[in-house]
Amino acid sequence: MAVLVAVMVAVLAIAVAGIVVVLSRVGGGPVTTLTVTASSEGDLEVTRAMLLARMQAARLADPKVTRTDRQLVLSARGTTPEQLRALTRPGRLHLRRVAAAADGSGTATTTLPAPTSTPAVAATIGEAYRAAAAVTTEQEAQALPASVRAAFAALPPQDVATLPARMRLLIPEIRCEQLATRPADVAGEPVVACEGPVKLLLDPATVTGADISAAKASRSDQGTWIVTASFKPDGQAKFTNLSKSLADAQGRLAIVLDNVLISAPQVVGVIPGDVQVTGMFTESQARVLAAQLGGGGELPVTLS
Q1: 98: in domain
Q2: Which of 50, 128, 202, 274 is least surrounded by Cβ atoms within 10 Å, i.e. has the fewest?
Q3: Which is nearest to 169 in space by CA: 96, 103, 246, 239?
Q4: Is residue 45's pLDDT more than 60?
């Protein structure tokens, strides 16, 4: 008996800002393609391989990454442009101790020393900078003249990022909106990030993505999605020592990915093994995060 199979294929292509979505009834769902451009020509083949590993870790169907000059083209079935874009982010993971918090109550203090160098923006705001440099507590900052505080409110994020960390934490007019768009964090320097409306001073990173050996997404006993990261031997030693120092002081561990504070849980005991990252993750978000953490570390070039 001869069986005739008629296959009808409907294709719709949409090209907007480097994204092409091809819808097909054959082959396992729609295909999404994303084109990104590298900031430099270095290590593009390494970047291509890392992106492919991330896509595979995120369990995307038919993942492909092709390269043309400084452009990389990602394609997969059954995904979205947003998910592909998330996979092209740097994946810069820093684990840091929360050193202080400024919530507007006037109680925040810091033991950071006075700045030893003066950023270029100091010349722009003049006396306001000199007055703020002497401040060591949130209460002192709140007592600064209105004209001094107003000078900081008007600063663009790139100038705010050059201010001493102590100033970024304590001056009330330096807002989370200014801090959120700061340049890429440097592992060896303190940073100020936000947890909702609360500013947190974070110590230099003790553990980074380079210390991660693998990561996976799974459901917790409560049914929520979590990401579990395992460490390389040296990384495990660093993380365990960090957890011990935090547990002794009932301190908090800040988990920061690409300048975004994912969570900052309190550490109540020494952690000799893996770290669990929790949040209000969807399955897709958890798989993307696991792919970023376990896909070979931070991308060597910036993609846009």
Answers
A1: no
A2: 274
A3: 103
A4: yes
